[in-house]
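Subject: Sanity check before I submit

Could someone independently write out the structure tokens for this chain? I want to compare against mine line by line before I put it in a report. The sequence has 512 residues.
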Amino acid sequence: MWAFSDFLKVMYLKDPVIRPLGELDSSTLQKLLPEIPLWVKNPDYDRVDWLNRFLGELWPYLDKAICNIIKETTKPMIDQYSAKYKIDAVEFECLTLGTLPPTFHGIKAFDTQESEIIIEPVLKWAGNPNILVSVKAYGLKATVQLVDLQVFAIARVTLKPLVPIFPCFSKIVVSLMEKPHIDFGLKLVGGDLMAIPGLYGFVQDLIKEEVAKLYLWPKFLEVPILDDSKVPLNKPVGMLQVSIKNCRNLKKADLMGKSDPYVKMSLGDGTLSKKTQRRMGTLNPDWDETHTLLVQNPDSQALELHIYDWEKISAHDLLGMQVIPLTKLTPDQLQTHTLNIRKTMDDNDPANQKPRGTITLDTLYKPFKDDEVIPEGDETEKPPEGTPQGGGCLVVTVHEAEDLEGRHHTNPFAKVLFKGIEHKTKPIKKNRDPKWPDGKFEYMCDEPPESGKIRVECWSKGSSMGLHPKELLGYVDINLADVVSNKRINQEYQLIDSKNGKVTVELQWLSG
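---
Independent answer below. Compare away.
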């Protein structure tokens, strides 16, 4: 039997309020969905449910493999510190990562137009590991247990260089994009060490700082996959200067009107491409533009030229192409080419018999000196004796910025200005700490720019509705004298006209 009070509760009970998620404020959503994955909040991230299912099936085997790697990796360190601090023995009594695998909450991929693959996975792991380590010293034994491990990290994984040998990449390079969140329990002889006042926060901060020192970008962990002796290193061995002069008697892509042609040039798939300016309404365009491409293998690479008709809405129409193998170029000799434009590179294609116009260009291949090729990695070469003679290529890479401050919005892109030439990265939407994967630019110089400067500007793109114009978020002028003498500089700069903004720029000088 119900009590009278229960009857009154039923009589006055109100129906719950049901509202669409779109009408809820952000704070209510955060309470309802505290673990919203990044692929929901940020369209740049993709779902990876299939990867989590795959990882779940593979985890029992990965657990054993990772634990074996931990034992092999830590053994030299344990032996070193045991001898230093007179410890008798350090042993793993139990080592397992538990039954709960990590989960990926999203993944982002970058297109760098280089011979590499870059992805940024977001990893969360609330695991149940059981790691028991016993330490014997001075006749005493202590056992420490690690439990309840939680990790949150955003990593950048680079597979490079891509090579025609399975598994098709030479090494894996891993960096952390921000300091990881790490939480755990540490027990000693049945008691919780982390319960000691002040110790928990100290250990947390210490681990974060040490991990950040090792692997926080631009520092990295490099895992070799293939033997270097079997892999072509793909380091730049020279630069190709290409001067596009003109095209004559181009074939119209449209029935009505003329074309708006431009030329795209590269040294093959996966290499950085360059474009000329487009010329509006003409079939006989003149350019007189000079571009520089870095050469990695002159014996196998070829200069690929594609002439396009620019279209505002639809895809650009291909007007024709040509190819110049680098083996036909004489080093350090300026050569002029006037070539018939082809539809395809198939000699048996009947369409190549029809006239499609000509293209005229100059080429100059300048090999680098053997002792002036910049190696990969963070090693800095010693300054060469004397000033480099002749010209060279200045490579500018704008990696990232921090704490950018826009008045109306922050959709930042970087702009590099040097010798009247301007290059831009693509804007990153709604981000005060952008990372630009397309921030690498090259400038050909007739002589070392010892007294020159380069300007790097950070801008915020204007709103699409035109309510707010683009705005300058800060800039920095960098003297190039040190780059010429040291060959390479990778440095963070404070932005002028910005309260806290910083930008990280890498400069390389490759002399001819």
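---
OP: Matches mine. For the report I'm noting this point. Residues 371-389 have pLDDT under 50 and may be disordered.
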